[in-house]
Specification:
Elements (H helix, E strand, L loop, with lengths): L30 H14 L3 H14 L10 H15 L6 H8 L3 H11 L15 H6 L11
Length: about 150
């Protein structure tokens, strides 16, 4: 079964220059991410003005117009959309955002079949290595990975 869509891959942090092997720089934490974290926290606390200001800081830097979101749920949705675009392919941010917000199953049940895969809820968590389980008798394997 072939995928139903074309998926693009990142070329965000490739180092320029002459190298004998491909080089890629790593961004662990960026200012835009800090603004988006704070924006989400402010929105969750009901400080929509502060949340919108932080969200628009990121959007303005990217050459985009300010958000039109007004309600708390719309502001939170706008922040998650911005995180999806701004943090594309960075350290699995989208996966963690989906899991944290309880949307992982809904998204993966649609996306996995488009990529020729199958999603199961237990995949939201990783298995514990056999070595770790053998070394610590208090550990049990993550459900679904038995």
């Amino acid at each position: 079964m072939s995928p139903a869509a074309v998926y693009y891959f990142p070329y965000k942090y490739k180092a320029n220059g002459t190298y004998t092997s491909p080089q890629e720089t790593v961004a662990l934490f960026r200012l835009a991410e800090l603004y988006l974290i704070r924006a989400e926290a402010q929105a969750q606390q009901g400080n929509l003005g502060g949340a919108i200001a932080d969200l628009n800081m990121v959007r303005t830097r990217a050459g985009l117009s300010g958000t039109t979101a007004v309600t708390q749920s719309d502001v939170l949705a706008a922040i998650l959309r911005e995180r999806r675009a701004e943090l594309f392919t960075e350290s699995g941010q989208r996966f963690f955002d989906l899991r944290r917000t309880g949307n992982l199953d809904a998204v993966m049940n649609v996306i996995a079949p488009l990529k020729g895969g199958v999603w199961a809820s237990f995949k939201a968590w990783w298995p514990i290595s056999v070595t770790d389980i053998q070394n610590d008798t208090h550990l049990t394997q993550t459900p679904g990975f038995q």
